[in-house]
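Please go through this protein, sequence plus structure tokens, and consider how the sequence yields the tokens. Keep your notes short.
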Amino acid sequence: MSLLSEMQRQEFVASYPSWTLDGETITRTVRYPDFVEAMGFVTRVALIAEKTNHHPDIDIRWNKVTLNLTTHSEGGLTFRDVDMAAAIDRVI
């Protein structure tokens, strides 16, 4: 699997403005009304991650969930990350 080109990275940022690009990682923070709803979201993400065998780094702070995606085995961003970001956006 190859890393995303600079043009592909910029296309992703343009298409998914809620995600930010930081080097070899894409990040999104989502806020919910309370902890229970935030954890429900994390559970939905976990089910997708298991199905696709691609797991984001997840930071949970009460009602705020931050997701970081990168393909560690490839040393940077790949289409697996873009596909996972799109799948996560569908369950927010």
User: Anything to note?
Assistant: The beta strands are 20-22, 25-31, 57-61, 64-69. The longest strand covers residues 25-31. The chain is about 45% helix and 25% strand.
